């Protein structure tokens, strides 16, 4: 077997292995999403007190989150399409400028040919001049002919490119118009959902106020979250559950203690382990009061393992950081990331809100290890 054959076989083998690994990873991700979706459905079916007022908010707050996420995606596509259109317009302008120069040069060459014509060749051959000079002159004419042919070929190629760029720019303009129409439609749907949400809040305002102070409900919320985290931990520990942090690109989470940034800028209105107002239930995390729609950042690299509405915590997102560590972000208005999404530190994962019947706008933030709550203040950068 020749060296070239061996190299070719090796490349083919590597490509097959790579394709198989990608397919296997996607298959694992699809299975993980299905298992988590089934877990969420089971959690909703088995949850007690389904008549609580907070449940009336679930569908409208889910819809607001989904509409905001779709609107964000459309806005990103719109920005990318505009950038592509600007690039195409610049390319078209440059091609037009190049073609003007090429046409001017070709005009001069054709004018020179018109002045000289084919008779110059005849004169050279019939004037009985020095053969060496005749050969040089003929070579000179041949050079001009080749040069003219090259300019014509280049000009023709640029015409083809310009037509293609013009067509692509027209298609991109149509795409932008479609995106703009979709954005308008999505904004209208979002406003309708927000109005419906306000109507629901108005109807159940008194009931919500009573439930916020109900010790039993707070305990049920805590238990529900603890059960969710425990089930997620067991699921992720199974083969194919999740890949966990890649050791070559992500630092182990346990080495980040004391180095994390808070996921959102705001005022911390409670401390880990302190009592909630008018109850014996203790805070398992931090509530960071912040303005609505403020971006929520991932505190570290990881993978989203839960992104849905949960009673008591509204639109909740949970990130698996490997080694049994998780971070939780609750009461969001919008969840920008979905189950299976890979994250790096500082990625925007959500937008601040007051979903789940929360009175104040802000973010509820927890850290957990193997299901047990950790004091976030010991993990974030001291200020």
Q: Overview of this structure, please?
A:
The structure is a single chain. By secondary structure, the chain is α+β, with helices and mostly antiparallel strands. Among the domains are: 81-200; 245-383, Glucose Permease (Domain IIA) (Distorted Sandwich), CATH 2.70.70.10. The chain has 6 helices and 10 strands; from the N terminus they run ααααααββββββββββ. Strands 1, 2, 3, 4, 5, 6, 7, 8, 9 and 10 form a 10-stranded antiparallel sheet that branches. Strand 5 and strand 6 (325-335) form a beta hairpin. Helix 1 packs antiparallel against helix 6 and helix 2 packs antiparallel against helix 4. The two termini are 66 Å apart.
Secondary structure blueprint with pairings:
Blueprint: H1 3-46, H2 55-116, H3 119-126, H4 131-203, H5 205-212, H6 215-237, E1 267-268, E2 286-289, E3 295-297, E4 302-310, E5 314-322, E6 325-335, E7 342-343, E8 348-352, E9 362-369, E10 372-374
Antiparallel strand pairs: 1-2, 2-9, 3-8, 4-5, 4-7, 5-6, 6-8, 6-9, 9-10
Helix pairs in contact: 1-6, 2-4
Concise description?
The chain has 383 residues and is α+β, with helices and mostly antiparallel strands. The protein is 57% helix and 15% strand.
**Helix percentage range:** 55-70%
Kindly identify the CATH topology of the domain at 245-383.
Glucose Permease (Domain IIA)
Number of helices: 6
The end-to-end distance, rounded to whole angstroms, is 66 Å
Oligomer: single chain
What's the alpha carbon Rg, rounded to whole Å? 33 Å
> pLDDT below 50 for ≥5 consecutive residues: which ranges?
none
Structural class: alpha+beta
| CATH-scheme architecture of the domain at 245-383 | Distorted Sandwich
- CATH class group of the domain at 245-383: Mainly Beta
The strand count comes to 10
Query: Averaged pLDDT, please?
Result: 76
């Amino acid at each position: 077997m020749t060296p070239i054959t061996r190299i070719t076989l090796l490349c083919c083998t590597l490509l097959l292995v790579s394709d198989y690994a990608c397919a296997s990873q996607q298959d694992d991700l699809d299975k993980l999403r299905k298992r988590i979706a089934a877990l969420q459905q089971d959690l909703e079916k088995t949850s007690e007190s389904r008549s609580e007022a907070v449940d009336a908010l679930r569908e409208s707050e889910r819809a607001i989150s989904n509409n905001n996420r779709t609107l964000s995606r459309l806005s990103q596509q719109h920005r990318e399409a505009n950038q592509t259109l600007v690039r195409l317009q610049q390319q078209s302008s440059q091609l037009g400028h190049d073609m003007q120069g090429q046409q001017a040069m070709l005009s001069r060459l054709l004018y020179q040919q018109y002045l000289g014509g084919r008779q110059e060749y005849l004169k050279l051959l019939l004037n009985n001049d020095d053969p060496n000079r005749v050969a040089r002159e003929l070579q000179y004419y041949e050079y001009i002919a080749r040069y003219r042919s090259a300019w014509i070929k280049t000009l023709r190629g640029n015409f083809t490119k310009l037509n293609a760029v013009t067509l692509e720019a027209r298609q991109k303009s149509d795409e932008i118009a479609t995106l703009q129409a979709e954005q308008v439609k999505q904004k209208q749907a979002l406003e309708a959902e927000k109005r419906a949400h306000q109507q629901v809040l108005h109807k159940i305002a008194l009931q919500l106020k009573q439930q916020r102070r109900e010790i039993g409900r707070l305990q049920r919320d805590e238990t529900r979250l603890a059960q969710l985290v425990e089930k997620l931990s067991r699921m992720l520990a199974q083969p194919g559950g999740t890949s966990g942090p890649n050791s070559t690109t992500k630092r182990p989470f346990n080495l980040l203690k004391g180095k994390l940034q808070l996921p959102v800028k705001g005022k911390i209105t409670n401390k880990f382990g302190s009592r909630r107002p008018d109850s014996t239930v203790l805070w398992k995390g931090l509530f960071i009061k912040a303005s609505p729609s403020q971006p929520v950042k991932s505190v570290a690299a990881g993978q989203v393992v839960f992104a849905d509405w949960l009673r008591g915590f509204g639109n909740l997102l949970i990130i698996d950081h490997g080694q049994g560590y998780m971070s939780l972000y609750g009461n969001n208005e919008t969840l920008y990331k979905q189950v299976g999404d890979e994250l790096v530190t500082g990625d925007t994962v959500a937008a601040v809100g007051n979903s789940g019947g929360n009175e104040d706008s802000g973010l509820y933030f927890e850290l957990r290890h193997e299901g047990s709550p950790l004091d976030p203040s010991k993990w974030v950068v001291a200020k």
